[in-house]
Design brief:
Blueprint: H1 2-6, E1 11-15, H2 26-35, E2 40-43, H3 52-71, E3 80-84, H4 85-90, H5 104-113, E4 118-121
Parallel strand pairs: 2-4
Antiparallel strand pairs: 1-3, 2-3
Length: 125
């Protein structure tokens, strides 16, 4: 929330500190999804080289992708999430009542989905 409050752009991109974009089109894919009318854009997360972490992240992303089609965008993760800044502010950002690991990103997506569509951007990995 502090980073988003200091941000001056029209979108805010959230990534986990151990994540890097897979290619140079990463940001363009998120921008395109937001420009098409979505209030947020979730992308895939993957590890490197077939390791346990790679398999875990790939499986999780595939599950989120399937769930996204069913529940309208509530299954993303904030480890790869772009949000229109104005929409993030309108819902009050992340709920600071979450004190332990988990579900603060799900809560954020539920509140964002009430304001508009959430895109699943396969190419933003």
């Amino acid at each position: 929330n502090a980073g988003a409050a200091a941000a001056r752009g029209s979108m805010v991109l959230f990534m986990d500190c151990d994540c890097l974009p897979a290619d140079r089109n990463f940001l363009l894919v998120h921008i395109s999804a937001l420009a098409s009318g979505a209030v947020a854009s979730c992308g895939r997360v993957a590890g490197i080289g077939g390791s346990f972490w790679d398999r875990f992240q790939t499986d999780s992303s595939m599950r989120r992708e399937r769930q996204h089609d069913i529940n309208g965008g509530l299954s993303g993760t904030s480890s790869n999430l772009a949000v229109l800044h104005i929409e993030f502010e309108a819902i009050g950002g992340f709920d600071t009542g979450y004190r332990r690991y988990g579900f603060e990103d799900r809560d954020l997506l539920i509140r964002l989905a009430k304001r508009g569509s959430i895109a699943w951007t396969i190419a933003a990995r």
